[in-house]
Amino acid sequence: MSKRKVLVLNGPNLNLLGTREPQIYGAETLADVERRCHAAADGLGLEVEFRQSNAEHELIDWLHAGRHDVEGVVINPAAYTHTSVALADALSAIAKPVIEVHISNVHRREPFRHHSYVSGIADAVICGCGTDGYVFALQRMATILSQGGK
Ligand code: DQA
Pocket residues for ligand 1 (CB within 6 Å)? Predict the structure, then answer.
């Protein structure tokens, strides 16, 4: 049986993980997070397609492209969380289960980080768990998909 495919998307500046404000985001690089996601996915019977972009349109294009073969989306929209109606619209448009992840606890940070355009359409939101949040999101996604998805 083919594995269920989950798109793991990362927004702007997450390519700098490991060197970017490590006191907030930790020492792991995005490549480390990608390895952890693949390892977690293996144990859950999922296949992960892991991507990062600094460009809003590229994240949206990947969502559109994935709508026929991806069964769920785990997304750390980074700063676009707080600014992008277009990204939230794309997530709604493809009508797949969505889990929003933030490495930091955005609610303990500046007020502009407290609002998310994505949370209102997400099935779950995980924040403040560090990069473990990606693994938790994949675990939850496996449960959602085993229950039939959206
Ligand atoms: C972030 C939180 C956002 O507010 C910020 O813009 C990021 C990363 C996080 O993972 O904690 O770039 O999404």
Answer: 13, 76, 78-79, 81, 102-104, 106, 113
User: Which tens digits make up the pLDDT trace of 76-127?
Assistant: 999 999 999 999 999 999 999 999 999 999 999 999 999 999 999 999 999 9
Q: In angstroms, what is the span from residue 1 Cα to ligand 1's centroid?
A: 36
Q: How far apart are CA 57 and CA 149, in angstroms?
A: 26
pTM of structure: 0.97
> Looking at residue 1, what is its pLDDT?
64
Q: What kind of architecture, by CATH, is found in domain 4-73+90-107+122-146?
A: 3-Layer(aba) Sandwich (3.40)
User: Could you tell me the distance, in angstroms and rounded to a whole number, from the CA of residue 5 to the centre of ligand 1?
Assistant: 24
Instruction: Tell me the C-alpha to C-alpha distance, in Å, between residue 47 and each of 8, 39, 69, 89.
Output: 10, 10, 11, 25
Substitution candidate for ligand 1 out of 28, 59, 104 with most atoms within 8 A of CB = 104
Q: Give me the residue spans of the domains in the chain.
A: 4-73+90-107+122-146
